[in-house]
Amino acid sequence: MENKRRRSLFLGAACLLILLAGLGLFQMARGRGTPISPPATAEDPGRKPPLVLRRYLADGRSEEVPWPSDLPWENLDKEKLARYFSPTEGWRIVEDEKRRLVLIQEVPGLPPQEATKRHLKIKDGFVAIYQGSAGSPGPLLRVTPIPASALPSSWREKIEKGEAEFSSEEELLVALDSLDEFSPPLKKKGIELHVANIP
């Protein structure tokens, strides 16, 4: 009877030790942010391919890029991905808060749909032409010789409100042609010339 009692106590103590060790491991893993669940497999319906983003440095916009259909993603880690998405081509590989891999390519300039747009602003008292849609910090292309003070109030208000936007260079040139009469004439060798608005 004494042997049975000792064996029961020993088994109870062993079970308690195993339980405490398991709880300790659980707490350690939780404290380090290590996932408790086993890693996802390719068959896991909740697993998604890495997120691919292209970030345009001129205005900070990002757009999602589809994952290349000919590239299997299931067994790719950061090191393997770096072979396909090279840092020399502007790619960075990070993990989001859900431990999903995110590939970000930083490219100079504006998104293609923005690059052809133009807008007008006032710079140092003159009408200036910027690339991109109104409100974007697109790069300054050039400053015209047209003083803002010489503009009709309707045009000046339109520019100040950020509403002087053009979908193409051609549309901008038509508008500038109508504003050309407000640019100051230059005198060169006794002949009056108007300053060209086109570089």
Explain this structure:
This protein is α+β, with helices and mostly antiparallel strands and 199 residues long. Among the domains are: 51-107, Ubiquitin-like (UB roll) (Roll); 113-191, 2-Layer Sandwich (Alpha-Beta Plaits). The chain has helices at residues 2-32, 78-84, 112-115, 153-160, 169-179; strands at 51-56, 62-64, 91-95, 101-107, 118-123, 126-131, 140-147, 165-166, 185-188, 191-194. The strands form three sheets. The chain has a four-stranded mixed sheet with strand order 2-1-4-3, covered by helices on one side. Strand 6 and strand 7 (140-147) form a beta hairpin. It is elongated. The relative contact order is 0.09. Residues 32-43 and 186-199 have low confidence and may be disordered.
Order of helices and strands: HEEHEEHEEEHEHEE
Strand content: 25-35%
CATH class of the domain at 113-191: Alpha Beta
The biggest sheet, with number of strands, parallel, antiparallel or mixed sense and barrel status, is: 4 strands, mixed
TL;DR of this structure?
This protein is α+β, with helices and mostly antiparallel strands and 199 residues long. Helices cover 31% and strands 26% of the residues.
Write out key terms for the chains shown.
Alpha-Beta Plaits, single chain, four-stranded mixed beta sheet, 199 residues, elongated, alpha+beta, 5 helices, Ubiquitin-like (UB roll)
